[in-house]
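Because showing beats explaining, we let one protein speak, sequence and backbone structure tokens together, and leave readers to judge.
___
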Amino acid sequence: MEAITTINEGVLVDIEVSTNAEKFMITGYNEWRKAFEIKIKAIPQKGKANKEIINQLSKITNKKVEINSGHKSHHKTIKIYDIEEEEILKILNNQINK
């Protein structure tokens, strides 16, 4: 999958973020943008959106998560530590179906 890249520390995942949603949710995979679509409650102000993304993805994966690139963009690359591509794909797909 083009949105996920394996690295020594874990994986990089490309995401496309929409703000001001009712709740945090992973809504699907955008084939055209090659990224997972994530909706968040927070507004993109003073790092609130980035904090919500990190906190929620950390809870979902039980792994350390950080933003690798795109701190001020709707398109971000997230680094998730100590996880393999197959495991993160399974977790993300389970979240999409909720």
In short: The chain has one domain: 4-96.
